[in-house]
Amino acid sequence: MPLLIAALALVWAAMLAFGTRAGDTALLLFLYAGGKPELIDAAWTVTQLGSFPALAGAAILGLIRLSLRRDWRGALILAGVTLSGRLLVEAQKVAFGRLRPADHEPLVTIQSYAFPSGHAANATIVFLCLALLLPRTGSGRRLALWVAAVLALAVGISRPMLGVHWPSDVAAGWAFGLAWTLALLRLCGRLARDCSPASA
C-alpha cells in the first residue's frame, strides 16, 4: 500500500509538472466533443455524477446507511475523508492556479482553476469510500469497487470531452483522490481494528 500511494503521488506530480504541453493538447483535441451533439449530451449527463449535489447526496445516503447499522466509526470516516478531500482539492486549485483550456469553446460554464479536476478527484473519493465502507461481504466489495472505478473514470473523461479540463488535470484528480482515500483508510486501520469495512 505505501508503494501504491507513493506511485500515485508521483503521477500527481508528473501531471502538475508536464501538463498543458503538446501531448496534453493532442489528447484534449482527441477527446473534445464539440460539434458532436450526442457526445455532448452523454458527457454532460455523466459529468453530473461528479457534481456537488450528486456526490453530496451519495455521501449522505452512505452516512444514513452506516448510521442505521450503528457503524458510527464508518460514518465518521466517510464524512472525514470526503470533506477533507474536497477541501484539499479546492486548496490545490488556488495554490497552483492552472488556467482552463482556451483553444476550444467550453461546453459547460465553469469559473474555478483547473488543477486538479475536482469532478475526477471527488468522484474517486466518494465512490471509493462508499465501495469500501458499505458492502458487508468480499464479493459485494469487489463488485462495488468495479462500479466505483467505472463511475470515477467516466466522470473524469467527461471533463476534457466538455472542454473544461486538460487530461492531466483529470489524471491528477484520479491520482489524488485514490491516494488520499487509501492513505486515510489505511491510517484508520492502524488506529482501530474495527475501522475495517469487513467488520461493519
* Approximate shape: globular
Percent range for helical residues?
over 70%
| Number of DSSP E strands | 0
- Determine the structural class based on helices, strands and strand pairing: mainly alpha
Run of helices and strands = HHHHHHHH
Question: What composes the largest sheet?
Answer: none
Give the oligomeric state: single chain
Distance between the termini: 22 Å
Task: Kindly estimate the percentage of residues that lie in beta strands according to DSSP.
Answer: under 5%
Explain what this protein looks like in three dimensions:
This protein has helices at 2-18, 22-31, 37-47, 52-68, 72-96, 118-133, 138-161, 167-191. It is mainly α. It has one domain. α4 runs parallel beside α6, α5 packs antiparallel against α8 (167-191) and α6 (118-133) packs parallel to α8 (167-191).
Name the descriptors:
200 residues, mainly alpha, 8 helices, globular, disordered C terminus
Give the SSE layout:
Elements: H1 2-18, H2 22-31, H3 37-47, H4 52-68, H5 72-96, H6 118-133, H7 138-161, H8 167-191
Short recap of the structure:
The chain contains 8 helices and no strands. It is 72% helix and 0% strand. Helix 1 (2-18) runs antiparallel to helix 8 (167-191), helix 4 (52-68) runs parallel beside helix 6 and helix 7 packs antiparallel against helix 8 (167-191).
